[in-house]
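Researcher: Here's the sequence for the chain we discussed earlier.
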Amino acid sequence: MSQAAERIRQAATRKPKEKLTALLHHITTDALAAAYFSLKKDAAAGVDGVTWHEYGEGLAERLHDLHDRVQSGAYRALPSRRVEIPKPDGGTRPLGIAALEDKVVQKAVAETILLPIYEPEFLGFSYGFRPGRGAHDALDALAFGINRRKVRWIVDADIRSYFDRIDRDWMVRFLEHRIGDRRVIRLIRKWLNAGVMEGAEWKDDLRGTPQGAIVSPILANIYLHYVLDLWFHKKWRARTAWGEAIIVRYADDFVVGFQHQVDAERFLRNLKGRLASFSLELHPDKTRLIEFGRFAYTDRRARGERRPETFDFLGFTHYCAKAKSGNFQLGRKPVGKRVDRTLKRIKAELRRRMHHNPYEVAKWLGKVLTGWLGYYAVPTSYLSLHRFAFRLRRTWLRAMRRRSQMDRTKLDKLGRVAEAFWPPVKILHPWPELRFAVNHPR
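Model: Thanks. This is the structure I predict for it:
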């Protein structure tokens, strides 16, 4: 954290109820330079067509000019270049690629001003797009809550097209709770109202923030901090819930656990109304209320019913299982659709590398498997990991045999090559309750 960011953080902590003024002067040429060098060098260019390397030619002069325009108000945000990327459910997600100069300014403002102000205010159950917090921290918190709290019911929630539906006026009103520098507010308005370019056509839906812009994650977190987090923590759970209630949120995906079914149903009704007040709505196909947890597991067995349904969160399917001792155990394994989608992409890449040196292909597949295990190798997922490695080997074998009608490559031969270049399939993450206890000592 820069000295300017640290001073802003200290001021925000000392004055939690006051607006902070005189902020924009902290966006110095040095701050812009640091933002530039922190960007990905091979990232796609925006509508201006300028790449990271091209902008670096005459960098000092460019940054001095950019600094003068930002401070004087002459800076103008360019529209984002819209591209469509595939989603797991078969649809597409619009992604906005900002111009490089906009990326530099957004990065500097986000890290020097916005994060120091709002990071101390964000609540503990919010994990997405925050420094020092990742997906596994959210997964650990959820597992701890299900195992240690009286959770019988789960609301698995997803907000429909969240980034595209953010109300900009409400966004600015939320920002004005803490930011009293009108120049910073005007700067953020420029990004919100810049619109997008689809081909040669400019569009602006007058709502939302382009998903993919550097400043969008922190703005999205601020929006849900006021719309959902504070409402649930200070009002709904404190005044409405009859029993225990837990929540874990990662960006716009969140899971809420309840002790009583009546609380879960009431929360779902209240949540729909709360989100509608801020131009948001729950995705009807991805939001569910299910009976889940160690109490639900035993209750359903006593009623002669099947084990509780499963739910997906952050790439893992969560299910009710039984430990060797016979007690309840939360099971987690990779989501099946994500496994299929990953293998499909690998299959396409193997066809492209069909005639490459097999040992080089084996090294590449080893890196792929290392990345997969780095995320999914959690306790209770051991069989799923071995199944993925087996399917990966079979996919490689089919690609090898397509090289020629005379190819007779055997699976055991590929297995010997894989043993030399692939990592061993084993559990890499500790039990979630142990890591959660270490990261959150009492």
